[in-house]
Amino acid sequence: MRLVPTAALWLALAAGPALAAQDTLTLGMVLEPPNLDPTAGAAAAIDEVVHGNIFEGLTRFAPDGAILPGLAERWEVNEDATIYTFFLRDGVQFHDGSTMDAEDVRFSLDRARAEDSTNAQKALFAGIEAVEVVDLLTVRVRLAASDGNFTFAMAWGDAVIVAPESVGQAATAPVGTGPFRFERWVQGDRVEITRNPDYWGEPPALARATFRFIPDPSAAFAAMMAGDVDAFPNFPAPETLAQFEADPRFSVILGTTEGETILAMNNRAAPLDDVRVRAAIAHAINRQDIIDGAMFGYGTPIGTHFAPHHPDYVDLIELSAHDPARARALLEEAGQSGLKLRLALPPPAYARRGGEIVAAQLRAVGIETEITNLEWAQWLEQVFRGGDFDLTIISHTEPMDIGIYARPDYYFGYARPEFVALMDRLTGTTDPADRTRILQDAQRMIAEDHVNGFLFQLAKTGVANARIEGLWKNAPTPINDLSAVRWAD
Question: What is the pTM of this model?
Fold first, then answer.
């Protein structure tokens, strides 16, 4: 017997594929965030999960790095850039149903700049003199000095808007205003988020997304090949990219990041408080060997802490060019023989693989290293917060972050007064040509002082199912914004 479809059945069959359109996504990440509060943690993995998805700021980054309206639909700036007036969007709600208004903005900014603030980028808010509520949808921020870059600072994950009623649970159950709501966190495995049906903006195409944490490069490769992971925006096994490029099931997404990868040195402690020793280490390094050996050719050599794709970048590589003979001479001049240093390595492949190469290069000029592999939480506690290290390899993925060299309490401990003065001048300067000159002077100063060993700009090497659209090619800030991600029909 043959079944003859009725008109209703034909309609149902035709509608089937549309009804079954894929609206879930599993995204791979190397590192698991230590918590989910971007206003109280330094780990980039926090922003990679929550920034732009769960939490939003007054402004936001576009995929090309431009600054766009966020929770503020527009703003006005006075002539000397000391007063910013933000006009908030009407009808924005936090995920718990409470209204987001000017009081929440004032709370968020005052909390970030408070004396007891635990914000990892507290310096972003140091110039704020007062935050005033004009009305429920208008906030006026008064700065102590001119700052033509304040809207840029407000786009960072550290500046997202939170509510006093729910911020206490942000570390484990965040409540924001973004296009996705927090669902659950299975520690050691994944974070799940779901579409926010009450979102103020364009609703996302995805109904659900899962962030899976896969630190091992081999496991990441296997998960992609098996389809257990749909996309891996920062893929940790660049040696396998050619295999993905040859497979029509996948697309390989190559772009840039803001990640200056450095051999950080503890400038506070002997013998690294001696510029000759730091210079010797810098001259012992062969950047291209590290890029080829640890990153399989993906990465751009740098000679200072600044992104090569930025128009104000200065190529200063020659100041620390690979020169083993010069390195040995500097060590002799500094009275250092038989030098042994500790090298602390966090989990990312660029650090673990790169660390072995760096150790061999230092050994070639007479410096032995004791390598310690640290888990991410250990690295944050011991190295970043505790300053207990000699050398470490890390990629600083925050945008335009050369100002960290002015912080006296920062982990590598530089803060040369002349550099601090440069950053103070930069904050008060609005003329583009003057800002360029200051930024270039700053690049030269830290390069000449060999504050750190400047290695390479981290490339963004992503792999995704070929049907996925909307993933960012470049990373002007370390986030996985899923608001425009969808599966192609």
Answer: 0.85
